[in-house]
Amino acid sequence: MAGFLEACQHCCYYCLRGLYWVPVGFVVLILTWGYYVYVYTLHLSGEFVKPIPVSVLFLFIGHILLFLHVSSYARTILTKHKPVPSEFMPTDEQLDQMDTMEDSQPFIAQLASSLPLNQVTRSGSVRYCAHCELIKPDRTHHCSTCGTCILKMDHHCPWVNNCVGFSNYKYFYLFLFYTVVLSLWFCLSSLYDIVHLWRKDLKEGLASKFNVTFCFVILGVFGLSTSCLLFFHTYLIFTNKTTIESMDAPRTHRGPVKDLYYLGVRRNLRAIFGSNPFLALLPVNTSEGNGASFPIKNHHHIAEYRSQRTGRTDTNNMENGYTVVLTSNRDSGSESEVEIFAVDDRRTETVPLASSPQ
Ligand SMILES: [Zn+2]
Ligand SMILES: [Zn+2]
């Protein structure tokens, strides 16, 4: 009986896994149908006679857009998410130690003190994933569908049956972009044929008429609804936010900070598309960073704030979102130490100037 129940559980698990692929199958079906209608019915069947050079040009442009669309979609689906770096994972001994503690939070905070973290939980403690047994890097969230922590998680997308996060966000955005462009291309380049078609005798080529018109309407609606999503994700890229952060601002020790990762439009765009404009719209990996630590907006202001509050001499800032404050020696007036602060004004390290990090 136990064996039978176990077999049922396994069966249900695989059925559920199979169901997750239904939306992907739907997208592939629409694409295949659109391809058939565009390439065969509109250009090769001979029912719609266009000058050959026009047909060749239309098919050439259509195939380039289709290639970019399909490869972006495939890479969004198939990209394996980069794992959380090992320094965020407690060792087996540390995990055993935590098991014996009634409140492991102070111990976790101690482990996290050397990590580049700015975000905290609502209660102000270190963000820790009990499922994956790791300290969550900034912008990382646990996905219950994927059953793992995803770096810079945006959302879990059923249309790609994968999480959208640091590793595949650019591909996802390009998938949306080329869905809209491809739908627009299909509708605009076949509009003349459709109008011409319905002017003819109704009985003539009735099946093709409905096939082409129905495909036109479906792809039009598909493109229009995707353009809303594309618009939203364009806003997110310009403001350097994820979908999760747009709904719930990341929290530091000072409370929620809406635009914590805003670095200016150019740097925000570079974070996703990289610095080479020729590769920006190609589904190749050009996103900047390691996915586990991110530059933040106001480290410079914090340096100024520290400097005003403490009366200390000079400020400097580092690209990784930490603030460095040079400390005067009270007696000689010379700069002797470098203090490093996280965004929340928490001092993380004090080092002699000679060995200060560059
Ligand atoms: Zn997790
Ligand atoms: Zn997921």
TrEMBL record:
GO-annotated cellular components: membrane
Domain Palmitoyltransferase DHHC: 127-248
Record EC number: 2.3.1.225
Membrane topology: Multi-pass membrane protein
Highest taxon in the source lineage: Eukaryota
Keywords: Acyltransferase, Membrane, Transferase, Transmembrane, Transmembrane helix
Catalysed reactions listed for this entry: L-cysteinyl-[protein] + hexadecanoyl-CoA = S-hexadecanoyl-L-cysteinyl-[protein] + CoA
Subcellular localization: Membrane
UniProt main location, coarse: membrane
Molecular function in Gene Ontology: protein-cysteine S-palmitoyltransferase activity
PROSITE patterns hit by this protein: DHHC
Segments passing through the bilayer: 19-40, 52-70, 171-191, 211-238
Family, as annotated: Belongs to the DHHC palmitoyltransferase family.
UniProt comment concerning the protein's domains: The DHHC domain is required for palmitoyltransferase activity.
Protein name: Palmitoyltransferase
Organism: Amphimedon queenslandica
Gene for this chain: 100640572
